[in-house]
Amino acid sequence: MKKIMLAAMFSIAFLLGYGFNQLTRPANTGPRVTGLGGIFFKAKDPAVLKAWYSKNLGIRINEYGANFEWHQGMDSTKKGFTVWAPFKETTKYFQPSEKQFMINYRVEGLNQLLANMKTAGILPTDSVQKTSYGNFVHLMDPEGNKIELWEPNDVEYAKIGTVTTK
User: Fold this and answer.
1) Number of domains within the chain
2) Domain VOC, which positions (predicted)?
C-alpha cells in the first residue's frame, strides 16, 4: 500500500508539473514560469509532520522536506525538482503574507522577468538571493499571497535532494 501511495504521489507531482508547464508555455521563449518549484506550508510541528509523511506515505525526507524528482519535458536528460516543505507555524518566512502557504514557481530568465514586472509596477518584497542551487526573490500577488520565484540550478540542487534524515 505504501509503495502504491508513493508511486501515486510521484505520478501526480510529475503530471501536475508537466501539465502546468504545458498550460503556461507561451508560443515564444523568454522569461517565464516553467513549473512549480515547491509547495510550502505552515505546520504546528514540522519535524513530527515530516516523520509522519515519511513513515506513513513513504516520502523520503531531507533537511528541508521532500524532493520529487522528475525529468524536464523538453529535454528528458535534465532533472527537475518540486519541493514539499512544512514550516513552523511561527515562521516569518511567509511575511508579509498572512496566508498559511507560499508557492514557489520555477522560472527562466529571472532578471528579465523582474525587469518586465518592474515596468508593470510590480516590485519584489526583497532582493534576489543567490545560492549555489539557484536564485530566489519574493513578490506579493494581487490577493496578498507571498510567492517565490526560483531560477534553479538543478545540477547543484540534485546534490541537496539526495541527502536524507532519519
Assistant:
1) 1
2) 35-152
Start-end of H helices in 120-153: none
Q: Look at residue 112 and tell me if it is in a domain.
A: yes
With cut-offs at 50, 70 and 90, classify the pLDDT of residue 126. Answer: very high
Locate the DSSP E strands across 23-93: 32-43, 66-71, 79-88
Residues 6+ apart with CB under 8 A from 142: none
In a domain, 23, yes or no: yes
58: domain CATH number? 3.10.180.10
Burial code of 106-130, b = ≥16 C-beta within 10 A, e = fewer?
bbeebeebbeebeeeeeeeeeeeee
Under a CB-based contact definition with an 8 Å cutoff, are residues 147 and 105 in contact?
A: yes
Helix (H, G, I), strand (E, B) or coil at 92: coil
**pTM for this entry:** 0.65
